[in-house]
Amino acid sequence: MRLGLGLRVIYIATASISGKPSEPITLSQSLIAVAGGIILIAGLWTPIIGTLLALDELWIALSLYLSHHEDIVIPIFLAVLSASVAMLGPGAWSIDARLFGRRRFSNDQTRHRGPYS
């Protein structure tokens, strides 16, 4: 999920930079998206970068909505995916997993016995 989201964000941002003359605000949005996509693919600071990408995509969606130029569905979808990746965490194959270890949650029924067990 990280890889697919990161590649898509990088692709859209680079197409936005190379496709039209950029205003400073559009250039900054695209540069944030490219840098965030690269870091997200690597799996470094995944919750922070996922949140940053979600906010950046919402910023892009709002600027598109205010300018009435393009469809805003794709940036909103990417914002939702970025927030999902931020909540899910880095995964097993990431720099975060190597640096901080992989967290696993177990659902052990023998530890906690409810009133009906």
If you had to describe this structure to a student in words, what would you say it looks like?
There is one protein chain. This protein is mainly alpha-helical and 117 residues long. It has one domain. It is built from 5 helices and no strands. The model has no long low-confidence stretch (mean pLDDT 81).
- Secondary structure category: mainly alpha
Q: How many distinct helices?
A: 5
Shape verdict: elongated
Q: Return residue spans where pLDDT drops below 50 for at least 5 consecutive residues.
A: none
Mean pLDDT: 81
Q: Profile the largest sheet.
A: none
Strand fraction: under 5%
| Termini separation | 38 Å
Number of domains: 1
Annotate the secondary structure layout:
Layout: H1 2-19, H2 24-42, H3 46-67, H4 73-88, H5 95-100
Helix pairs in contact: 1-2, 2-3, 3-4
Notable features of this structure?
117 residues; mainly alpha; elongated
Brief digest:
The chain has 117 residues and is mainly α. Helix content is 69%, strand content 0%. It has one domain.
